[in-house]
């Protein structure tokens, strides 16, 4: 589903908290557990608090809306516009054709630091799972890739919890609006 807004000032956040990519030749993705539901709820809470106009989730690869998500969201799930799609790359393509800017997130040094990016018009922010990131087909659908400055110099921690990243990214992006 592509959400259309007339004023162009809205940001829709796509949170893909339960996506697993086979990286480093991992034979099987980790099993689904309550943790992605709690992360999803916490990310919904951040999105509502920081002013995102909606959240888009992929029906087959994201944590389902549930009591666990609701509790972790502190009620945000009940008031936030949560939309679902069946095929994210296709939905992102339609959003792009409809004038939305599609921003992906990556820890890669080639990604633009979020502190250097200014929103212009309706935007979809796509977050990947912790440690695994975005699927290649999803990343190809993005107009630009953003990253959060920082990092652990020792290399022990190479990614953030998706709800923490959601809060940092939305604060950086939406805090710049007048």
Provide a compact summary of the structure.
This protein has 178 residues and is of the alpha/beta class. The protein is 31% helix and 17% strand.
Rounded Rg: 15 Å
Structural class: alpha/beta
**What composes the largest sheet?**
7 strands, parallel
Average the pLDDT over all residues and give the rounded result: 77
> Alpha-carbon distance between the termini?
28 Å
Number of helices: 6
Shape annotation: globular
Q: Can you tell me the CATH class? A: Alpha Beta
Query: Element order, helices and strands?
Result: EHEHHEHEEEHEH
Number of β-strand runs? 7
Please characterize this protein's 3D structure:
- Helix 1 (34-50) runs parallel beside helix 6.
- 38% of the residues are buried.
- Strand 1, helix 1 and strand 2 form a beta-alpha-beta unit.
- Mean pLDDT is 77; it is low at 1-7 and 15-34.
- The chain has a 7-stranded parallel β-sheet, with helices on both faces.
- The longest helix has 17 residues, at 34-50.
- It has a single domain (11-16, 31-174), classed as Alpha/beta knot (3-Layer(aba) Sandwich).
- The chain starts with 10 loop residues before the first strand and ends with a helix.
- The protein is α/β, with parallel strands linked by helices and 178 residues long.
- The protein contains 6 helices and 7 strands.
